[in-house]
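Progress report, Aim 2. The chain analyzed during this reporting quarter is listed below.
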Amino acid sequence: MGYAAENGHGGGRDSESECTKERDKLVGYLVTATVMVMASSWACDKRLKEKEATQNLRAAGVL
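Predicted structure tokens for the chain:
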């Protein structure tokens, strides 16, 4: 056996399938993390805008 076969780099169908599953799982984690960061950022922006609007209304004497 050569180096590739001994070290799991044979390129057989099983290893390709395992690599594909692992890649898909990691891509899923990346997508989930990205969506969570975007949602958190959006929520923070919304809170800041609401806070600013409230301060503007108080300054105008409405509240």
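The longest helix spans residues 13-59. Residues 3-59 form one domain. These observations will guide the mutagenesis work planned for the next reporting period.
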